[in-house]
Design a protein that fits this description.
Blueprint: H1 5-60, E1 65-70, E2 76-79, H2 81-87, H3 104-118, E3 121-129, E4 135-147, E5 150-159, H4 161-183, E6 188-191, E7 197-201
Antiparallel strand pairs: 1-2, 1-5, 3-4, 4-5, 6-7
């Protein structure tokens, strides 16, 4: 079947316009898609930054020292004000510093192995040495997290120096009291506030 010259002329006249229209429509759709994508990722970035700010604010408000460190190297990614003060960190340039465990790499390796085994560390007694030289015991918990796209560890530490000092003082008082019991020749009875007999020492033979 052969087309008439008129029909052929009509086909030749419409096809380029249709192609141009299709191309323009495709470009517009592509631009629209790009604009939507840019808008979406900007919104997502804003939400992430807002979430990070809220996360930082939450950590700053905590009543104990909190640090976030790189899992691979132990360097600080974040430290709240309490951690900065307790560890004597450089207030604005602590990111090249690491958690000052008393036995450095040995303690860190032990903690990493325990994290691999148990997934977290809760209420473990540790010893730290602040960057001003102060050595002190802490009760700490460590959990793996993702922080700004990095594998990290978040740790919460409570200085228990005063608790340890009180405990040692109590033990010393108990030792002195026992020594007193051994030297007094008369019988001694120790009663609690409720009248319960706590300890009895019979008189020494004369």
């Amino acid at each position: 079947m052969t087309a008439t010259p008129g029909c052929a002329g009509l086909l030749i006249g419409i096809s380029p316009a249709a192609d141009r229209s299709a191309n323009v429509t495709g470009v517009l759709l592509l631009l629209l898609t790009l604009l939507v994508a840019v808008w979406f990722y900007r919104r997502l970035a804003l939400r992430i930054r807002r979430s990070e700010r809220e996360f930082h604010s939450l950590l700053e408000a905590a009543p104990f020292a909190i640090t976030v460190t790189r899992r691979a190297s132990g360097e600080f990614l974040f430290a709240n004000q309490r951690a900065i003060e307790q560890l004597a960190l450089a207030p604005t340039n602590y990111h090249s510093q690491s958690v000052p465990y008393a036995h450095a790499d040995t303690d860190r390796l032990h903690l990493l192995r325990r994290l691999e085994r148990d997934g977290r560390i809760l209420n473990k007694e540790m010893e730290l040495v602040a960057f001003d030289g102060r050595r002190f015991p802490v009760l700490g918990s460590i959990v793996p997290i993702d922080f700004a796209g990095e594998e990290a560890l978040i740790g919460a530490f409570q200085d228990i120096s005063n608790l340890k000092a009180t405990e040692m003082k109590g033990r010393s008082s108990e030792s002195r009291l026992r020594a007193l019991f051994e030297t007094v020749p008369d019988g001694i009875v120790v009663r609690g506030a409720d009248g319960t007999i706590r300890q009895v020492r019979n008189p020494a033979p004369r």
